[in-house]
Amino acid sequence: MASAQTLPVFREADYVIVGGGSAGCVLAARLSEDPATTVILLEAGSRDTSPYIHLPVTYYKTTGPKFVWGYETAPQKEQGNIKTPFTQARVLGGGSSVNAQVYMRGLPKDYDDWRDEFGCSGWGYDDVLPDFVASEDNSRLSGPLHGNDGPLKVSDQAYTHPLTYAWIKACQQAGLPYNSDFNSGDPAGCGLYQVTNRAGRRSSTANCYLHPVEGRRNLDVLTGVQARRITIENGRATGVEVSIGGSAKRIAARRDVIVTSGAIGSPRLLLQSGIGPADDLKAAGIPVVRHSPEVGRNLQDHLDVFMIYELTGPHSYDKYKKPLWQAWAGLQFALFRSGPVTSNVVEGGAFWWVDETDPYPDVQFHFLAGAGVEAGIADVPSGNGCTLNAYLVRPKSRGRVTVTSPDPDAPPLIDPNYLSDPADLDRTMKSVRLGRRIMAQSSLAPFLKREHFPGANCDSDDELEAFVRAQARTGYHPAGTCRMGPDAQAVVDTQLRVNGVDGLRVADNAIMPRLVSANTNATAILIAERAARFMKGNQA
User: What predicted TM-score, i.e. pTM, was given to this entire model?
Assistant: First the structure.
């Protein structure tokens, strides 16, 4: 730490934000609204210039090394010690630049539980709803639950594949009612997801929050800047040591350092800075600055399992793999800003029960009118397929993130500890059976030829258990590793200040006491909106 203090100051601002992802872009835009306040936003990755980021349909092309960290899990004990990729964004806009653009907030009860079960006063649903509304510009919905004046463009799908409509009818035939607004407070049923794109362009937080205000003289956005550790003097965060072009430099913060590097990156940076469980830090050779036992603990994630079906013909987006159909889709987009290029592919959704004793839906489905992008799965023989994904929205298993070396360039150890709670295994198996029941309905019968994966031979409880253990993967929704709470063991307090270190906050999905019951990007935006208000002195 001492050597970091001797580095010359490269840049200085009132606020230094570490991580230009979903939350970081929101914070940079909100804090720089005051022209008397200076803000520096640091992003390790590149700017979001690739067309693959901005065209909704090509999000699957953003998972390569140009846009994400090359992380993988630690060996998963309950999955035969397999290691699987653990994608985390590394580009301006973060997850909002590479995700499938599904707009979901979770259940009202998720936030009420943060308040009532975890003691996070001011974070109940009635408290956070105004921030959701303020962030949103919804193309269809309005009223007390939805906003129309916020930066984030939320829309109905510009194009929906006919096979998705057939799937939604199949859900209804299986007993799931139609739901026209999953964010109404009651997500039960099936329907079309609203999405964070509009007019054929992704609505990332970089596009909606940051880029419109980048001309502000009090805001600097620096990409290709890797944070190495937070500099701390006399118990106060004073800035960030960074690597720029291989050279170590120091960026000073006059007020606060705000870490918005996600549920993996944020605890990693705190640990590299000497903030975390003392025994873990000593084992990694890192001097202990502040013993904070829960940094990196409480890792939660949705564990995704998928079913792939072969079709009777070219009934899905897979036909657009052929050059002729690609040309046609490109022409339709160029002329009319419509057609398949405007689709996020993950069009159909459903929330339902596999545990009927749970008062709220406990499984979420995503239907994709296409197949062939799942790593390690053999292509559908005919080349025409569709995919149904399922995950438990409130998993019980808990894992951790830690570091094993004082070298800030060494990758973190990511152990989600999937299926460590037996209930997760049982209910994930049941979610496959429920998904199969939906896919067996008559509205899909003309289109489906057979189940390609896991296949008809996987049917007994033992076979399904083996399938889940071998094939379940991250749902890309890690959370909880810098838990918020009122107690001394919590990493941050309810205003997102790191306990025991002045001038330091964490403001992203790492602070969730418990993972929300749906996709998580909207919650990251919510957390950043509230953090900005806290720092501006508006507590309401």
Answer: 0.96
